[in-house]
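Illustration: DUF423 domain-containing protein.
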Amino acid sequence: MNKRIILTASFFGFAAVALGAFGAHGLEGKISESHLETWETAVDYHFYHTLGLLFLATFSRAKNNYIKFSFVTFTLGILLFSGSLYLLSTRAVTGFGNPSVLGPVTPIGGLCFILGWIGLFVATIKNKG
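Result:
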């Protein structure tokens, strides 16, 4: 197993649980219902791709460049997609997160997620095991 992937996934897993709990208990009544739903979407995708990272660690002995690619794109996806949604949904409270800047960042993060899954698909096809 790849220690770097597991450490990254562990950190992201911790962060997803903490941010999910914060959204459920700390943001309720402080941001609009639609922004709370956006926060929940960010947490969901954060979790899905944290689990995807853990799965990538099972391929680590293959030394496959597609697995490295998926690791990088899943990580960027979590940071860009979920990160931008976290900031956008709490803008009313924090005053941080310009929608004209962060709005285009979200789909770039989504594209990173898609590319990561394609990388995993190709890695699986090329795996000789």
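Reading the tokens back as a structure: The chain has a mean pLDDT of 93.
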